[in-house]
Amino acid sequence: MGPLLEITKSEIPEIDFQDKFLKPIWEKVLHNEDLTLTDGVKILETEDFASVGIMADFITKNITGDKVYFVLNRHINPTNICVLSCKFCDFAKKPGDKDSYEMSIDQILDEMDDEIREVHIVGGHHPSWEFSHYVEMVKSIHEKYPKVQIKAFTASEIDYFYRRWKITPEESLSILKEAGLDSMPGGGAEVFSDRIHKMLLPGKATGDRWLDIHRIAHNMDIKSNCTLLYGHIETFEERVDHLIKLRNLQNETNGFLAFIPLEYQIGTTLLRKRHTTPFDDLKMIAASRLILNNIKYIKSYWVMIGESTASIGLNFGANDLDGTIGKERIAHAALADSPAGRAREKMVNSIKDAGRTPVERDALYNEIKVYV
Ligand code: V47
Fold first, then answer.
1. How far is the CA of 286 from the centre of ligand 1 (A)?
2. CA-nearest residue, atom 24 of ligand 1
3. Is the minimum distance from the CB of 90 to ligand 1 under 6 angstroms?
């Protein structure tokens, strides 16, 4: 899958570059050339924020016009018990820890309803849950909610099924697909750099393994997403190298639906003192759009960058707002409207506020409704 941009479709904007190093990058964009590591680093380093936004916005509008997508979904994390001890992770607990938890399949089913279109399931690498438990989970969801698409298990979890139970990714993915799995989330990628892996996530699937598992999934016709966890101890070079590796795999398989830049949340891990600024977050969205010229959807993930920055992100190259609905039972009890109804209204308003056309989608980006 090569670049998605079709120059003939759009009017080319005049850009008054304040940073002269961006001009040759714009020329490459207009000639549908892949940006290099050096180009990517220049985009992340520049102070000429406006020009970067205009370039990224040009690509996105060319690919999906004014449309911005969202999905009514539910994120479920069945357990936080994890054999790994990644230094950036605030979520994982050891068995017996005060805050550790395990959800039963019935509890998972209770978290869902018929109105959502996608369930996103990611959890800790549990020391003793057998693979059959995950299959049962997918099967039960599929049986009870046949209209909800199941996006479940990161490549890191699929790798763990092999390490723990000697079930290869080919086997586990084919059994899960048979049980009702529709697609895979993009988590677990973190930053592909070996340096970061050694420092922050020893024992977790390496970058090459993550890419191999997505390649296997794509070859089995399982679409997936991809992510980058940025804003901790990684360098700009490491960020861009990661994006280029994703672009290369997409050229080979065309199996990625969307890319999500995940801003590192400091929590109690304190890998750095402050969050990245909205300025950095928007440049990261724009750089992703410019470098990943072959991935159709770029998410502005409001859960991590906040609603205001996410809304501006829709003018910096993003064309998807994700859509996570939390469990809103208390508010729901007090109001007549359904949680899904209110989540939908919130998404539609945020997208309209950014001057774009909201489109409700399913997990595989089939359009459900355009809100004109
Ligand atoms: O893999 C862990 C990241 C990911 C932290 O595929 C952290 O549509 C920030 O992958 N600060 C899980 N991030 C989330 C994820 C995701 C989210 C939304 C949509 C999709 C999709 C995928 O969250 C993990 C890890 O990279 N993470 N700890 C942290 N402290």
1. 19
2. 187
3. yes
Stretches where the chain sits below pLDDT 50 are: 328-336
What is the tens place of the pLDDT at every residue in 128-171? 999 999 999 999 999 999 999 999 999 999 999 999 999 999 99
How many domains in the chain?
1
User: 108 in a domain, yes or no?
Assistant: yes
Ligand 1 near 225 CB (within 6 A): yes
Determine which residue's CA is closest to atom 4 belonging to ligand 1. Answer: 187
Pocket mutation for ligand 1, best pick of 69, 149, 227 (most atoms within 8 Å of C-beta): 227
Domain span including residue 260: 62-370
Domain annotation covers residue 24: no
Q: Ligand 1 mean position to 264 CA, how many Å?
A: 9
- Name the phi and psi angles at 44, rounded to 5: -75, -25
Q: Please write the tens of the pLDDT for every residue from 20-58.
A: 999 999 999 999 999 999 999 999 999 999 999 999 999
**Which residues does 21 contact at the CB level (< 8 Å), separation at least 6?**
42, 46
Question: Does residue 47 form part of some domain?
Answer: no
CATH number at residue 74: 3.20.20.70
Tokens standing for 348?
Answer: 């539609």
Residue bearing tokens 């859509």: 323
Q: How far apart are CA 84 and CA 79, in angstroms?
A: 13
Whole-angstrom distance, CA of residue 234 vs CA of residue 76: 28
292: closest CA among 64, 4, 39?
4
